[in-house]
């Protein structure tokens, strides 16, 4: 007698690209990768996966995960799902930072906003996107704080409206299921209104506040069992009626396409102005030469082996303090390579540059630290390197 045979097939995958890293995934490793982001299925998703016969697997090699589905034969070229999703089914994954430093070296907000999270969904329509590279960010170029962040709300959602709200006029609508709930409190005072909703009766997900049928606010309800801190949410709609067929995970005939969707999140590395601040001690040979006039401030320069990386001495330099800025904003990288070629980027402080007595003051200046950012004049952001000679 044959034993029971259970077959699982790939349903979907997600991969994370971080252009800061040389391998575009995570820090260089010798045994196993340790991605900067951990994806954790929500409590609701774990229940749905159990009902639908799905298995979640983290995939460190690409920084993401794979979901496998139990299948039962084929229908034409496509595999047939053993358990088909019902209307309103989705898979939600909390994105939790393992390495908070990624907020510095990626093009992400430099100041924390605990009221907002990143929200990524497969409800994207992009005819140029291919099924093996489906960006979940609004922009194909990568994750954007301006486009991909959303307000978040917990069980009790409060909203202050600048006009009075009539009876029955305010509702919170859960977008995926269409469920609408009424406020538990409506307080009109002085021509304004404070609304309070208890969201515990609806599933986690994207919601809208409607006042007199007009969208007034939009937010993500985190549900009752959300982690204490999380960076964002990936929400994958299992509906077979998504308008972009490439972004669909399941089909109306309860099948999955032969080519499985690979959803992607791309984080672009932050570009910053490199700022070298050089302090000269009284005993410094360079300070002594500047005072004596054997070295000229105007010929004190930072040079590199990359023609695209140049620095300019800033006004106000003295024989004890000199500041250099990179001429253009430079992208943070795990490893800096001089272009063109494969040699490491070399940065050198020279005196009397262009003169007969040109000499190196200090070779191999350090690269900027990703933890030393000055965003006082954001979007102009500096990365500081301090040298004492």
Put the structure in a nutshell:
Helices cover 7% and strands 41% of the residues. The protein contains 4 helices and 28 strands.
Walk me through the structure.
With 389 residues, this protein is mostly beta strands. Helices cover 7% and strands 41% of the residues. The protein has helices spanning 43-52, 102-105, 145-148, 285-292; strands spanning 7-18, 37-41, 54-59, 64-75, 78-81, 90-97, 116-121, 134-135, 149-153, 156-161, 170-174, 180-181, 185-189, 192-198, 205-211, 214-221, 232-237, 255-256, 262-267, 271-279, 301-304, 311-313, 321-326, 330-331, 347-351, 359-362, 373-377, 380-388. The strands form five sheets. The protein has a nine-stranded mixed beta sheet with strand order 2-6-17-7-9-16-15-11-12. Strands 1, 3, 4, 5, 8, 18 and 19 form a seven-stranded mixed beta sheet that branches.
How do the strands and helices of this protein lay out in sequence?
Elements: E1 7-18, E2 37-41, H1 43-52, E3 54-59, E4 64-75, E5 78-81, E6 90-97, H2 102-105, E7 116-121, E8 134-135, H3 145-148, E9 149-153, E10 156-161, E11 170-174, E12 180-181, E13 185-189, E14 192-198, E15 205-211, E16 214-221, E17 232-237, E18 255-256, E19 262-267, E20 271-279, H4 285-292, E21 301-304, E22 311-313, E23 321-326, E24 330-331, E25 347-351, E26 359-362, E27 373-377, E28 380-388
Parallel strand pairs: 1-19, 7-17, 8-19, 9-16, 20-28
Antiparallel strand pairs: 1-4, 2-6, 3-4, 4-5, 5-18, 6-17, 7-9, 10-14, 11-12, 11-15, 13-14, 15-16, 20-23, 20-24, 21-25, 22-23, 25-26, 27-28
């Amino acid at each position: 007698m044959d034993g029971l045979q259970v077959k699982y097939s790939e349903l979907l995958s997600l991969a994370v690209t971080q252009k800061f890293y040389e391998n575009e995934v995570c820090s260089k490793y010798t045994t196993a990768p340790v991605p900067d982001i951990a994806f954790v299925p929500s409590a609701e998703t774990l229940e749905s996966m159990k009902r639908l016969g799905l298995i979640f697997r983290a995939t460190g090699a690409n920084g993401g995960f794979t979901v496998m589905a139990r299948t039962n034969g084929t229908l034409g070229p496509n595999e047939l799902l053993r358990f088909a999703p019902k209307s309103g089914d989705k898979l939600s994954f909390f994105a939790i930072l393992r390495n908070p430093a990624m907020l510095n070296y990626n093009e992400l907000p430099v100041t924390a906003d605990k009221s907002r999270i990143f929200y990524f969904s497969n409800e994207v329509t992009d005819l140029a996107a291919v099924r093996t590279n489906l960006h979940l960010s609004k922009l194909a170029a990568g994750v954007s704080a301006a486009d991909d962040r959303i307000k978040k709300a917990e069980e009790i959602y409060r909203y202050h409206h600048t006009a009075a709200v009539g009876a029955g006029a305010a509702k919170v609508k859960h977008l995926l299921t269409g469920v609408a709930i009424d406020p538990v409190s409506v307080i009109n005072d002085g021509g304004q209104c404070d609304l309070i909703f208890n969201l515990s009766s609806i599933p986690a997900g994207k919601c809208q506040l409607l006042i007199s049928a007009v969208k007034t606010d939009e937010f993500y309800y985190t549900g009752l069992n959300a982690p204490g801190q999380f960076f964002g949410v990936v929400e994958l709609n299992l509906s077979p009626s998504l308008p972009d067929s490439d972004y669909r995970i399941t089909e109306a005939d309860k099948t999955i396409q032969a080519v499985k969707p690979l959803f992607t999140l791309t984080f672009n590395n932050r570009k910053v102005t490199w700022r070298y601040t050089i302090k000269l001690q009284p005993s410094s040979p360079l300070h002594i030469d500047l005072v004596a006039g054997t070295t000229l401030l105007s010929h004190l320069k930072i040079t590199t082996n990359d023609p695209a990386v140049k620095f300019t001495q800033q006004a106000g330099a003295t024989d004890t303090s000199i500041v250099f800025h990179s001429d253009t904003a430079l992208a943070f990288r795990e490893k800096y390579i001089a272009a063109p070629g494969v040699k490491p980027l070399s940065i050198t402080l020279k005196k009397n540059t262009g003169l007969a007595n040109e000499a190196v003051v200090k070779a191999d200046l350090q690269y900027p630290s990703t933890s030393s950012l000055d965003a006082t004049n954001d979007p102009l952001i500096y990365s500081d390197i301090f040298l004492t000679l």
